[in-house]
Write a structure and sequence with these properties.
There is one protein chain. The chain is of the alpha/beta class and 677 residues long. Helix content is 48%, strand content 10%. The chain has a six-stranded mixed β-sheet. It has a five-stranded mixed β-sheet with strand order 1-4-3-2-5. A hairpin with a 4-residue loop joins strand 2 and strand 3. The radius of gyration is 42 Å and the shape is elongated. The two termini are 80 Å apart.
């Protein structure tokens, strides 16, 4: 039988139990101190049954009858252990005996008389328990300060110890590469690092060296930390995990000490992987001017990290994985080859990536056949892996709120709307004039986007207030790798459609287009100052890709700034007039959309298609889906053909009954071979 290990908290429990027991012993009887006159009065009235004389303390105790005990102690309950007593001081034992003899002669007392010698041990312990409690508390806090027995936690005496969490065979994660979807390229790179550690001889035999580190870079929520967890689950080597902020402490020199302790543990466990999440907390670029010559704790930590990663010593078998979404602020010395040999960019998933991520998160969700993965992937452009997980969870919550037996397609659509636009505010009171203005505005966006080739296809339009918006329109953005001049103009024209519809059909404008104007202005400035798409300023770019701002100076003159402003105003004005022309041309359809919005509050793609007809342009997203279907069909046919092919041996086979053996053709013709030679 395996006995449990001793725990210091058992000692605390025993001490507490003893103190409670002493308290209960001292409170086991109902005791009341009285003066001698009162004591004598109780005895003469027959209220005392027994008398106990404590000789060495000159104290007499009288055991009361039940009737007298109830008068003195209202809460008294007769029991075998609890006795009601009165206590008084006596001049001496002899005097007390004379008084007892007198009471017996008078016939007022006939009980038992006991003479005892009292002990001071219980009272001594009872007076000592506050000191014992202070000792226990002191011992407890000292253990906490030292980080616990055998621990290297956050105590004062272990403040320089590493806080890295170790994952090994005894303490492993359940995340594997199968749980990571939509990151095929990044997963391939990281899987190669795991292979380095499993079979290093395959690479060292050819003279190669195992890379020192890999930096995962990408926007928040794209799965950088999840990828590191998958490495911990896949690799059969120790895996140290910690955050960059764990190195930072208020004490000077603590960060560098923790770095040294981390790499000391890693060398002892080598081969192993060290993962530092949010490394920008300590890896920020060092400044040229230290703060008044002070000792910068963060820079000392970074210097120690640089030394440990590629210093004079060797860290064979230790690979560093780090993650950040702000690689532009990292120190250049940290990013050089030999430290972080590889930078793995974890980007937002594309259409196929989102579809794979949805498959992973929908495994544990009870859904029906109406859920379309292709539609969900198309309706979530720009969503990260964390956003997609949030969509699936929100859809399940919505279905449970509606008391559905499973999650349906509409639940997912409402979840996307909830995350993108916010919660519906049906309680917001709007007048009929405001509702018509909002409907005309949103119908203007829908009308223009339907009739422009490069504008995003419409999905849904609503005039129900949601979030900070009084109305909203959902589109399926084309996931283009590059944007052409015409595509950007079409997007601007579609964005200005709401303001143009207000002016054209209401005769006045409102503040509802503030967000539209902000987006259009930023896009126009980007076209002129960044993309060189201006007639007066062609092929010029004033964008600083290094991330360093220009400060108080601009890279162009005041005259050039005036030209930029003029070009921005010209582009926006042209697209605004273009939007009004399109709305004037399709005024009847716009009016039908407005009335439909006012009556139903929500319209979909089919409603717009019934009014304006089918769009003549095929979206790029549809082309991608068609290409994917062709690739899947081709792969399926190849797999089926491979199953039907019989395995061939090394002997030559007869070619179609000609009697000639089948041979492998040469890779080049004779003329090509001569040219190569």
């Amino acid at each position: 039988m395996k006995l449990p290990k001793f725990n210091i908290f058992w000692l605390y429990a025993i001490i507490l139990a003893v103190l409670i027991g002493l308290y209960m012993i001292n409170n086991d009887s109902y005791t009341k101190p009285v003066d001698w006159t009162q004591f004598e009065k109780y005895v003469q009235h027959g209220g005392v049954t027994d008398i106990i004389v404590v000789a060495n303390k000159n104290v007499a105790e009288g055991v009361l009858t039940d009737s007298l005990a109830r008068k003195i102690f209202p809460e008294y309950q007769k029991s075998t252990t609890a006795q009601a007593r009165i206590v008084t001081d006596i001049p001496s034992t002899d005097k007390m005996q004379e008084k007892i003899d007198q009471w017996e002669a008078d016939g007022v007392f006939s009980g038992n008389v006991k003479y005892e010698k009292g002990s001071d041990f219980g009272g001594f312990l009872w007076s000592l328990w506050p000191i014992l409690l202070l000792v226990v508390l002191w011992y407890f806090f000292m253990r906490r300060m030292s980080g616990g027995v055998g621990g290297s936690g956050g105590g004062v005496f272990n403040v320089g110890k590493s806080r890295a969490k170790l994952f090994d065979k005894d303490n492993s994660t359940n995340v594997t590469f199968n749980d990571v979807a939509g990151l095929q390229e990044a997963k391939t790179e990281v899987a190669e690092i795991v292979d380095f550690l499993k079979t290093p001889q395959k690479y060292t035999e050819l003279g190669g060296k195992i890379p020192k580190g890999a930096l995962l870079v990408g926007p928040p929520g794209t799965g950088k930390t999840l990828l590191a967890k998958a490495v911990a689950g896949e690799a059969n080597v120790p895996f140290f995990s910690m955050s960059g902020s764990d190195f930072v402490e208020m004490f000077v020199g603590v960060g560098a000490s923790r770095v040294r302790d981390l790499f000391r543990q890693a060398k002892e466990k080598a081969p192993c992987i060290v993962f530092i999440d949010e490394i920008d907390a300590v890896g920020r670029a060092r400044g040229k001017n230290p703060n008044m010559g002070a000792n910068d704790e963060r820079e000392n930590t970074l210097n120690q990290l640089l030394t440990e990663m590629d210093g004079f010593g060797t860290n064979s078998g230790v690979i560093i994985l780090a993650a950040t979404n702000r690689a532009d602020i990292l120190d250049k010395a940290l990013l050089r080859a030999g430290r972080f040999d590889r930078q793995i960019y974890v980007d937002l998933p594309d259409l196929n990536g989102r579809k794979e991520i949805f498959k992973v998160h929908l495994k544990n969700i009870k859904k029906d056949d109406s859920v379309d993965l292709d539609l969900l992937a198309r309706q979530t452009p720009g969503f990260s892996g964390a956003d997609i997980a949030n969509v699936c969870n929100e859809a399940a919550l919505i279905a449970a709120r509606r008391k559905n037996s499973c999650v349906q397609k509409q639940d997912f659509m409402d979840a996307v709307d909830r995350i993108v636009g916010g919660l519906e505010k049906k309680s917001v009171i709007t007048t009929e004039e405001e509702r018509r203005s909002i409907a005309i505005h949103e119908a203007g966006h829908a009308t223009i986007s339907w009739h422009l080739q490069y504008a995003n296809p419409l999905v849904k339009v609503t005039i129900v207030p949601r979030g900070k918006a009084l109305g909203a329109a959902w589109y399926l953005p084309e996931e283009r790798q590059i944007s052409t001049y015409e595509a950007m103009l079409d997007e601007m024209c579609s964005t200005l459609g709401g303001r143009a519809a207000e002016e054209l059909f209401l005769g006045h404008i409102s503040s509802g287009a503030a967000n539209d104007l902000e987006r259009v202005t930023k896009q126009a400035y980007a076209m002129v100052a960044y993309f060189g798409m201006s007639k007066k300023l062609p092929n010029l770019c004033y964008y600083d890709s290094t991330g360093q701002s220009y400060g108080f100076t601009k890279p162009y003159s005041e005259e050039r700034a005036k030209i930029i402003d003029e070009e921005v105003s010209r582009i926006i004005s042209e697209q605004y007039e273009r939007a009004k022309e399109i709305l004037h041309k399709y005024a009847d359809g716009h009016g039908k959309l407005t009335e439909m919005l006012l009556s139903r509050e929500v319209i979909y793609t089919d409603d717009v298609e019934n009014i304006f007809g089918k769009r003549p342009w095929v979206s790029r997203t549809d082309e991608i889906l068609k290409i994917n279907e062709e690739i899947e069909e081709k792969r399926r046919k190849e797999e089926e053909a491979g199953k039907n092919v019989e395995p061939q041996n090394n002997e030559d086979k007869d070619v179609k009954g000609t009697g000639k053996p089948e041979t492998t053709p040469p890779p080049f013709s004779k003329q090509e071979d001569d040219n190569i030679k």
